[in-house]
Amino acid sequence: MIDHQKLLERFISYVTIDTESDPKSDATPSSKKQWDLANLLFKQLKEMGMSDVSIDDKAYVMASLPSNSDKDIPTIGFISHFDTTPDFTGANVNPQIHKNYDGKDIVLNAAQDIVLSPSYFEDLLLYKGQTLITTDGTTLLGADDKAGITEIMEAMQYLINNPEIKHGTLKVCFTPDEEIGRGAHHFDVQKFGADWAYTMDGSQIGELEYENFNAAGAVVTIKGKIVHPGYAKGKMINSMYIATDYINSLPRLETPEHTEDRLGFFHLHNISGGVDQTELEYIIRDHDKGHFQARKEIMNKVATELNTQYGQELISVTLKDQYFNMREKIEPVMHIVELAKEAMEAANITPIIKPIRGGTDGSQLSFMGLPCPNIFAGGHNFHGRYEYVPLESMVKAVEVIVNIATIVAQK
Q1: Cys staple from 363: which of 147, 323, 339, 354, with CB 3.0 to 4.6 Å?
Q2: Which of 302, 382, 397, 398 is nearest to 15 (CA)?
Q3: Which of 110-116's residues contact partners 24+ apart within 8 Å by CB, and which partners?
Q4: CA distance linking residue 267 with residue 253, whole number of Å
Q5: Beta strands 196-202 and 374-376: pairing type?
Q6: Model confidence over 273-283: pLDDT tens digits?
């Protein structure tokens, strides 16, 4: 039996460590505070008896659980990231435990009137009677992806504690900077040594994903001219007004709040500036490669058209690809998806196979030669104050990891 209390305590210990990544830094990890959790995981892996435990100069933590079988069994990896998103603060996380959830509103913060309600987040009703871990309304929780780390660590500990359970060699890796698209940039696939792997980085219980967005980031820079407003006629160019023209020139309904399933989008996630210069930061997403390329072309086309309209080069666009749809790399080895599906069913979980409306280290790793579908970690409402995770979903994720290991050993 998986120890619920120990799993909960491990999870709480991880989410209370601030590991927010920094997209403006060129270092790896992008923030020094990510080292705090990386070093702790390195220490804990050694203490629990894992082999080949290492941490490199980029904070990638790797370890092995040797095979305890005489059979020739494929080597399988499990991967999660320890950074949290820079979109919302992960400092001073104060998790709240709600046992035997009754299906009603959860007051996260009475003073600020912050409520987690099933009338808005209807998935809450899936977890009546279970234990929910939430925020206190002022930070994110960090279940993305410290739930995944917790599940992998607990699964390895369970197999170590129960040596009668036969398995092949298992590899684990915990990575920095996934939230800013760099989680696999310095991943040493050869050193890892797995035949294939799974990222434990999905959302609700049962999710199993092998296709994801193609992704790029864009920075739109608008140059203005600042002069004294009393003498500005014919001279001032207010970059913020031009930025508004650029924003309104993109398809308004092709944004995250208006799209679902495989529909892509343009997402404006940050604006900064003043009269003299404004910067717009976008992410561009689409499952279809052709549509993805077209979206990038639209970003440049709008800039060209507005520059022509204003009669000077005021707008520039810098585009950078981040990752691509891993489906083309997974389809030739679909048995690894079927294996995960079988492992879920053995844990009485109904698999939910769908495309990821987001990214995962697994997409980059698949293109680096390590096929890597994505399995649920159990959390909901990532990247904000309404994030929560059911304890029972994390327990089931541990069971799935153990089942994958044992099913492969039996084949």
Answers
A1: 323
A2: 382
A3: 112/137, 112/138, 114/138, 114/385, 116/386, 116/388
A4: 11
A5: parallel
A6: 999 999 999 99
CA dihedral in degrees (27, 31, 35, 36; nearest 10)? 170
**Residue 270, beta-bridge partner list:** 281
Cα gap 323→212, rounded to integer Å: 9
Strands lying side by side in the sheet with 51-55: 51-55, 61-65, 170-175, 76-81, 196-202, 374-376, 207-209, 352-353
CA atoms within 13 A on the CB side of 208: 21
Give the end-to-end CA distance of the chain in Å, rounded to a whole number: 24
Cβ–Cβ under 8 Å, residues 136 and 96: yes
Q: Please report which confidence band the pLDDT of residue 395 belongs to, taking 50, 70 and 90 as the band edges.
A: very high
HEC per residue, 255-320: CHHHCCCCCCEEEEEEEEECCCEEEEEEEEEECCHHHHHHHHHHHHHHHHHHHHHHCCCCEEEEEE
Give, in order, the Cα–Cα distances in Å from 404 to each of 195, 389, 399, 410.
14, 22, 9, 10
The 10s digit of each residue's pLDDT in 40-68 is 999 999 999 999 999 999 999 999 999 99
Measure Cα distances from 10 to 178, 254, 397 in Å.
21, 40, 15
pTM equals 0.85
Going by the DSSP 8-state scheme, the letter that residue 66 receives in this structure is -
Known catalytic residues? Answer: 83, 178
Tell me which CATH code domain 4-212+325-410 carries. 3.40.630.10
The closest alpha carbon to 347, from 411, 406, 396, 401, belongs to 396
237, two tokens: 């160019």
| Helix (H) or strand (E) segment spanning residue 157 | helix 143-161
Q: What is the rounded (10 degree) CA torsion for 124, 253, 295, 270?
A: -70
- Gap between the Cα atoms of 92 and 135, Å rounded: 10
Q: In whole angstroms, how far apart are CA 220 and each of 263, 268, 274, 296, 299?
A: 23, 10, 14, 12, 9
How far apart are alpha carbons 349 and 343 in whole angstroms? 9
Q: Is the domain covering 214-323 a CATH 3.30.70.360 domain?
A: yes
DSSP string, 96-135: EEESS--SS-EEEETTTTEEE-TTTSGGGGGGTTS-EEE-
**In the chain, domain spans:** 4-212+325-410, 214-323
Let me know: does 88 contact 383? Beta carbons within 8 Å.
yes
